[in-house]
Recover the amino acids of this structure.
């Protein structure tokens, strides 16, 4: 009986030792994914890999980033419209009859109409952003975030000065990813967006924080 028990233990030990760890499964998955997108796949060289538990809905990440780009655009356009309205009013006030009143007034009316449109679209975008951020914070285990550093030649055949660092948002089995290859700069931007929503209580606060964090220019034309 004892011999049989030891035999089962030995078999279990062998089977356990043959089961790949999460790091090993993640390494295979990200290597395959990265090489498929490289201009020079043979230049790929792994540096480090970290696997962390994920308690989010990763499918909300791309919509959050896309909507945030729209919000930046609308804020810039609103700034531009307000600037055009201000300049038109200033021109009429200071030059009076010396200015081309009809043309200046036309510019002001056009900018005012665009301002209404952009404000309406911005409000919709902010509502959608909040909804996706709420969806993102799911609060239960959904898979793994794999952080991977590696070197590889870029499309110009050059090795980057700073090693690549990408994040992969993978399923529980580490067999596929919802989102692949988010670089360190995009991840910082994403975390900034989440922070803006968390610390802002009103639309105006969100808009102000977007302006401050992303240095939004008021001089775009439409």
């Amino acid at each position: 009986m004892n011999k049989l028990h030891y035999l089962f233990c030995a078999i279990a030990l062998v089977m356990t030792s043959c089961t790949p760890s999460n790091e090993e499964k993640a390494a295979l998955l990200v290597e395959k994914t990265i090489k498929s997108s490289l201009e020079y796949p043979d230049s790929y060289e792994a540096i480090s890999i970290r696997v962390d538990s994920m308690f989010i809905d990763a499918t909300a990440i791309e919509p959050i980033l896309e909507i945030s780009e729209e919000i930046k655009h609308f804020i810039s356009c609103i700034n531009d419209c307000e600037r055009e309205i201000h300049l038109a009013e200033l021109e009429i006030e200071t030059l009076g009859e010396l200015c081309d009143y009809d043309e200046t007034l036309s510019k002001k009316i056009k900018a005012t109409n665009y301002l209404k449109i952009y404000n309406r679209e911005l409000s919709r975008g902010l509502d959608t952003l909040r909804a996706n951020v709420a969806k993102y914070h799911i609060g239960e285990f959904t898979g793994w975030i794999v952080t991977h550093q590696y070197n590889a030649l870029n499309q110009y055949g050059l090795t980057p000065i700073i090693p690549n660092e990408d994040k992969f948002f993978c399923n529980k089995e580490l067999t596929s990813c919802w989102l692949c290859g988010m670089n360190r700069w995009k991840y910082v931007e994403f975390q900034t967006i989440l922070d803006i929503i968390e610390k802002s209580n009103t639309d105006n606060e969100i808009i102000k924080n977007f302006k401050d964090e992303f240095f939004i220019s008021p001089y775009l034309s439409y």
